[in-house]
Fold this sequence. Notes:
Elements: H1 11-14, H2 23-36, H3 38-51, H4 58-78, H5 80-93, H6 103-117
Helix pairs in contact: 2-5, 3-4, 5-6
Protein name: NADH dehydrogenase [ubiquinone] 1 alpha subcomplex subunit 8
Keywords: Disulfide bond, Electron transport, Membrane, Mitochondrion, Mitochondrion inner membrane, Repeat, Respiratory chain, Transport
Organism: Penaeus vannamei
Amino acid sequence: MITKDFSLPTEEELTVQEINISTPALRAAAFHVGKQCEKQNNEFMLCREEEKDPRKCIAEGKAVTACSLDFFRKIKKSCLEEFTQYSNCLDKSSKDLGFRHCRNTQSIYDKCVLDNLEMERPEFGYFCRPKIVDTVRPKPAEDAPLEFPDAPEPLPEAPARPSRYGTRFHWMQ
């Protein structure tokens, strides 16, 4: 439920060029896109976690999309053939888009990205490491705890009596 004071962003604020790309192609580029756009993505995820309101993170989301679009434009300009072969291999080699069947085309694609864009594929486990995000955005103020003035006083604690037949944890006493 929302109130009449709730404001939604305008359509102009939400309009951004979409990334029209298939799942195999997105999976093929995932490691390099993640590395290239890591700063923008971390900033966006931090904003969403801290603000708890997606309307306040529209600019950060647009930055992630712009970075991804820029990466795919660079791939299209310099490594389109290798990228296409790799994504086609992922698409047609297994039903779960597994990487294990396409290591040869992956190595060719990785070499092309390294040679032309000077970007190495991140090592296994890179994205699982904890990272500290340095941001210029101020930390939002924390909400005060809810107070209920008409709440009844808590009941007094009853003294604990020993159980009538002992306890199942008799060896711990």
